[in-house]
Amino acid sequence: MNIGFYGNSTASWSGHSDSFIDIIQQRFGATVVNIGTPQGSEERILYSLKKTKAIDIAVIFHGGPGFYFIPKCNRDLRISTIPENKVKYLWNENNSDLMSPQAFEEKYFDPNSGIKKIFGTIDNFVNCMTYYREYLWDPDAEKYRYEAFLMAVDDYCLKKVKLTIHVMRPKFKVSWFDFKSGIESIEIANFVESFKKILNTTGTTEKILPNGLTVAGNLFVADELTKLIKQHYQGVA
């Protein structure tokens, strides 16, 4: 059984016994053929699906509009906010109250992120994002682009994937759109949404893992996915 995990950072961490991806892999003796990407865009989801061969099950954690596919990097970027917020620090504006230049460089130019490797210098990165936003970006076009790729992902899974499990957090739902492929896990979506709200407002004393969930959170997602796979995938008891 080949299982691919697609989407944003909630599905981007494997290689550890506490990750729900690894738990699912072990429970079903499956081969994991893809994992998600930090800030993963809907366009990257489609790109990754088409690059993955022989997918039996696709588990897709959909994000929202605003993230642009950066093909050579191992993360996507939010064009609408990075230039206008983060550039202030790089230009040493003392009246800015966001992150420091050092914090910015550590977050966005970690050698493991791929951004530094691709763009080379902070100036190249800033100029690229700034010019893109100024000349090629439009908020309405961004929304329509997201919706178009969402439909394309759904259509591709309908035709090519044996079982698709969609996880769409309530805040990202498109009012006029419903998935035609596979099934949608409202339970996982609501759990992730609730956890993110708690994390953003009150925080938590539990250790947060790279999937953006706690150990208990990863186990909850694994248990829910296990139930859905057993219910909807033929040949699995």
Structure characterization notes:
With 237 residues, the protein is of the alpha/beta class. The chain has 2 domains: 159 residues, Rossmann fold, CATH 3.40.50; 56 residues, no CATH class. 47% of the residues lie in helices and 12% in strands. It contains 9 helices and 7 strands. Strands 2-1-3-6-7 form a 5-stranded parallel beta sheet, with helices on both faces. A two-stranded antiparallel sheet has the order 4-5. Helix 8 packs antiparallel against helix 9. The protein is globular, with a radius of gyration of 19 Å. The two termini are 13 Å apart. About 7% of the residues have low confidence.
Q: How would you briefly describe this protein structure?
A:
With 237 residues, the chain is of the alpha/beta class. Helix content is 47%, strand content 12%.
Radius of gyration: 19 Å
Under the CATH scheme, the architecture of the largest domain is 3-Layer(aba) Sandwich
Secondary-structure element pattern, one letter each: EHEHEEEHHHHHEEHH
Total helix count? 9
